[in-house]
Amino acid sequence: MPPAGSPDLDPLPPPAGAAFERLGWTFLAEFFEIARRRRPSDVEALAELGSAYTRLGRYREGLEVDRTLAALVPTNPTVHYNLACSLALCGQAEAALDALERATALGYTDHAHLETDLDLESLRSHARFRELLERLKAL
Q1: Is the pTM of this model over 0.70?
Q2: For residue range 94-123, what is the model confidence (pLDDT) as tens digits?
Q3: In total, how many domains does the chain have?
């Protein structure tokens, strides 16, 4: 129930809501592209840009950003996890599994997220993925 005195607004129907969400991600991508041109080593802006690209289905551009981030902060486990996601979305399974291995070696331990992350769906049938998941669960 809306607070007293506020208009009673219905949520947007699904098609309009999805279009509105896409518009928001497009705006964010454009905003962070400008930020990247101004400060190409801004890790936070790059991370947001990579996320926006992925949400928009611009996987190859997201992969480029994630590779840049991995070069800028090579010891960050989340950066390598996100790189694995981008690689998997681009159909590069072996490289994605290598990046996941690197992420876990650097300290990534969230097996529950790894197990359900839709970006990694293409890796679930690989023995290396299942072995990595089991190792994380055992921690």
Answers
A1: yes
A2: 999 999 999 999 999 999 999 999 999 999
A3: 2
Establish if 112 belongs to a structural domain. Answer: yes
Phi-psi region of 76 (alpha: psi -120 to 50; beta: other; left: phi over 0): beta
Residues 88, 136, single domain; the answer is: yes
Tens-digit pLDDT profile for residues 71-101: 999 999 999 999 999 999 999 999 999 999 9
First to last CA, the chain: 44
Name residues whose C-beta falls within 8 Å of residue 132's C-beta, 6 or more positions apart in sequence: 97, 100, 101, 104, 114
Residue 61 lies in a domain: yes
Provide the residue range defining the domain that includes 106. Answer: 80-139
